[in-house]
Amino acid sequence: MDGASARQHDTTKMFTRLKEEIDAIMRRDPAARSRLEVLTCYPGLHAVMFHRVANACWRSGFHWLGRWISHWSRFLTGIEIHPAVKLGRRVFIDHGMGVVIGETAEIGDDCTIYQGVTLGGTSLYKGQKRHPTLGTGVVVSAGAKVLGGFEVGDGARVGSNAVVLKPVPPGATAVGIPARIIMPDAPASQQGAKQEFSAYGITPNADDPVSLALKSLIDNAAKQHDRIEAVLAALDRLGEHLENTPNDRFDASELRKMMK
Asked: Are 181 and 172 in contact (CB under 8 A)?
């Protein structure tokens, strides 16, 4: 392939990739009315486009130029992506203001990242894998912090404002501070090959595991209370009357309201 053919091939590939990313945004954002609107008015797309150029410079050894392009990208879009970041295809940074993605982060295909997200590192040693790796189809919700050189598995979701400090299994949801893991009700193989996109990582039945445990404890305490009341009633019938004090009263319904 001669020089002219190579340049034409690269140009065709660039426009094909751009169309692919615009189409992905159209599918995932109901507010997108046209491809022209996405191309001209979506800072997340602009940040990805700038990063493609900055990353090419970085990989070619022009580190200062890559950082300079990245710096201007942050100034124009409010999204900071280190030029060394490995970015997959069809990555959608929605709204995007305040997103920070560190040097050794890796982001897989079809990931969605919302505003205020940090993919940060917890180590100061150069040359180490300090930042997280996102698998395919991961959704990281607004304000979430994913900190460390671990992996967030394919199809996983990170809830808004969660602080994730350990690996997230594929298909799971991480919520809370520090984040706790909620596993799906059924394995990914049983959920169907194609799953509906989960905006902001909202998942059915995605209650905090701690709240679920507390609800179970309340239900168990209510059952035990009913059994104790039955025992006291039986003793009363046998002539052994035990007086209940006001402090012995247990109202599970009030506790359940507090957990809603």
From this structure: yes
